[in-house]
Amino acid sequence: MLTKRQKQNTIKDHQEHATDTGSSEVQIALLSKRIKFLADHLKKHPKDFHSRRGLLMMVGKRRRFLQYLRDTNEKKYARISKKLELE
User: Fold this and answer.
1) Confidence class of residue 87 from pLDDT cuts 50, 70 and 90?
2) Cβ distance 33 to 6 under 8 Å?
3) What angle do CA 20, 23, 25 make, to 5 degrees?
4) Helix (H) / strand (E) containing 8
5) Is residue 36 part of a domain?
6) What is the domain range of residue 54?
7) What SS3 state is found at 84?
8) In this structure, is residue 8 part of a structural domain?
């Protein structure tokens, strides 16, 4: 899991203003961190099917956020994709 400090640092890196904690960019960044953590966990524990399901659900949620961002603001989508090295 992400520690509180890691989560705060990720939010600071991707927020648009001081109180922004729920924008699409922040949520995509947080999901990407959690996905990376779970992917590493599953490399060590390949039979952990419950975590695998959680990972697949997070990937789907991130995909929907990215689709929304691409439809509403192409520049932000390109910036977050490049910054997080997605696609």
Assistant:
1) confident
2) yes
3) 110
4) helix 4-14
5) yes
6) 24-83
7) coil
8) no
pTM above 0.85, yes or no: yes
CA separation, residue 3 to residues 9, 34, 79, 86 (Å): 10, 11, 25, 23
Q: Report how far residue 25's alpha carbon sits from residue 32's, in angstroms, rounded to the nearest whole number.
A: 11
Q: pLDDT tens digit string along 19-75?
A: 999 999 999 999 999 999 999 999 999 999 999 999 999 999 999 999 999 999 999
Residues shown for the chain: 87
pLDDT for the residue numbered 1: 80
Contact criterion met (CB below 8 Å) for 87 and 81:
yes
CATH number at residue 40: 1.10.287.10
